[in-house]
Amino acid sequence: MLNALLLRILRRRGLLLGLAATALMLAACRSTEPQQTATAVYAQAAAEIEALRASATVVRARMQTTLEYAATRVSLVEEAGGFLRFSLNNMGTDSAFIEQEISQLAIVDTPSPAATAAPAHAGTAVPTAIDPPTALPVAASSTQAPPAPSQLPRLEALALASAVGADDCAIDINPAFTPASSEIYVVAQAYNVAAGVTISSVWKRQGAEVARFSFQPENAIHGACIWFYIDQSDAAFLVGAWSVEIFVDGFSPASPLAFQIVHG
């Protein structure tokens, strides 16, 4: 009897322990399910955030590219407008008419500040500084006749070049100039230029003077080439409309020569 009673007690205790263990296992399973769900949701959200970041980066890059392209196009239009304005002025077109027509195209020209003139470059003579160009002097007396047109200084075959030859004439005519160009020459055949006169060149960008050079020939010039040049130490070769004009003792024998520096 005693043994049977002990056996029943042990069986009941074993059953209770089994039930307790089962309950603990079920509780553990229930506690991990919410954690697993939260982990999965977090991982999905993180993946979506990364996808949004990648998309935003691509869109931003496209917008930056579009803005840079638009800025380049605006710059090209401004350069073309400046060159057109200067060329029309050289042809004698009325300035008021030019400004009116160009303003209707919304072309705005922003001149760059004038650079400080550097040492002059002209022929082989030592250059000297000159005063701003002045009008041809008035005759000393009323009885002194003005020089005949055939006796006035004259410039022919005015052109731009990248260099000159041994004869002081251009080795090429009106090449394309870019910000990477090393030198820009202006060359002309001079006639009726007396010895000792001051021959000068004035270089401008967008109408603003950037450099001025001069020299005095030792001998009279009649049919020989003369030249000036400008390099990056005189003025930075910025993209835009440029011009150069040659003076002989303050008199301009030829119209300004317009040219462009373009993107390489």
Description:
The protein is an alpha+beta fold and 264 residues long. The protein folds into two domains: 1-110, no CATH class; 149-261, Immunoglobulin-like, CATH 2.60.40. Helix content is 38%, strand content 20%. The chain is built from two helices and seven strands. It has helices spanning 2-90, 95-104; strands spanning 154-161, 183-191, 199-205, 208-215, 225-231, 240-248, 257-261. The strands form two sheets. The protein has a four-stranded antiparallel beta sheet with strand order 4-3-6-7. Helix 1 (2-90) runs antiparallel to helix 2 (95-104). The radius of gyration is 42 Å and the shape is elongated. 22% of the residues are buried. Residues 106-120 and 124-145 have low confidence and may be disordered.
Features of this protein?
264 residues; Immunoglobulin-like; three-stranded antiparallel sheet; 7 strands; 20% strand; elongated
CATH architecture of the largest domain: Sandwich
Q: Please report the number of helical segments.
A: 2
Structurally, how many domains make up the residues?
A: 2
The radius of gyration is: 42 Å
Characterize this entry briefly.
This protein has 264 residues and is an alpha+beta fold. The chain contains two helices and seven strands. It has helices at 2-90, 95-104, and strands spanning 154-161, 183-191, 199-205, 208-215, 225-231, 240-248, 257-261.
How is this fold's topology laid out?
Blueprint (H helix, E strand, L loop, with lengths): L1 H89 L4 H10 L49 E8 L21 E9 L7 E7 L2 E8 L9 E7 L8 E9 L8 E5 L3
Helix pairs in contact: 1-2
